[in-house]
Amino acid sequence: MDKSRQARYERTIGTTRFTEGRFSTWVSVVVNLFLSIAQAIVGVLANSQALIADSIHSLSDLLSDFVVLVANKHSQKAPDADHHYGHLRFETAASLALGVLLLAVAAGMLWAGINKLQDPSAIAPVHYAAVVAAAITLVAKEGLFRYLLRVGQRVKSSMLIANAWHTRSDAASSLVVLLGVGASVAGFPLADPIAALIVALMIGRMGWKFFYTSFSDLLDKAVDKETEIRIRNLLLSTPGVEGLHDLKTRKMGDMIWVEVDIEMDSRLTIAQGHDIAVRARERVMENEDVLEVMTHFDPVDVNDPERVQKKMQARHDAPDH
């Protein structure tokens, strides 16, 4: 890949997003490592199955953070001889892996919780220390979620946002654990394993959401209708563009790849048509998170009465009118 193309690619996808993503993920690694160890120790000593389950959940966060770090490193690579479209789908693959990880954790926690409920007499009393540990965990996870989400939204990274919401599921589960542990200490021993089951269901729901969205993107699902309409209007509003057809979109990580046939006046020279196509491409890339716009232009008779009528009707029916 020549240097000019490499520079343009880096300008398009940005480099700050990868730097900030790496730093914020390492912050998450440190926090989750500390919480996982602390929860496991207190959970064992305080006889809290819910706290131990939350510790396993924190450990899964730690593993997911490393998945994000690996994807963050590879997705910033520019196109090469073997990957002509770049490596941005590493981010999609990472989100898919996070979804699978969450589903696996949820299944394991459900199994353990159901086994505990089948033999209530074997449930040991929970010590008050578990309540303190659950409260500290809740505060830490909620703070980490807000930090990661802010970074993900600022750099527009779905992978980082997915990881942030993974952390929010931890904060929500920690709240359930806190309530369950508190109820158990107050004299309701079944509350502890029940809390573990609720946490498992919450994790499973979030895992399915990540899995389904990422899997759809890997199958080249088109962007949402609103985004497609905006792209279409940007193309049609470019001077010299008489119409378009076969507009196709697909996700490349957080970016969008666009292919479209642009209709132009058949009397234009090839150079004039090329200039119009370049302006249309630049308009889209300046206003949307688009990595590339591949255009093909078709010659049309702009004075054809039927065509003029159709164009006027299309403008009248446009969503922004």
Automatic annotation (TrEMBL):
Topology of this chain in the membrane: Multi-pass membrane protein
Origin: domain of life: Bacteria
Cation efflux protein transmembrane domain span: 26-219
Transmembrane segments: 21-45, 92-114, 126-149
KW Transmembrane (keyword) present: yes
Listed name of the protein: Cation-efflux pump
Keyword terms: Membrane, Transmembrane, Transmembrane helix, Transport
InterPro entries listed in its UniProt record: Cation_efflux, Cation_efflux_CTD, Cation_efflux_CTD_sf, Cation_efflux_TM, Cation_efflux_TMD_sf, CDF_Transporter
A Pfam cross-reference name: ZT_dimer
Location of this chain's protein in the cell: Membrane
Record has Transport as a keyword: yes
Organism (species): Neopusillimonas maritima
Family assignment from sequence similarity: Belongs to the cation diffusion facilitator (CDF) transporter (TC 2.A.4) family.
Cation efflux protein cytoplasmic domain: residues covered: 224-299
PANTHER family reported in the protein's UniProt record: MITOCHONDRIAL METAL TRANSPORTER 1-RELATED
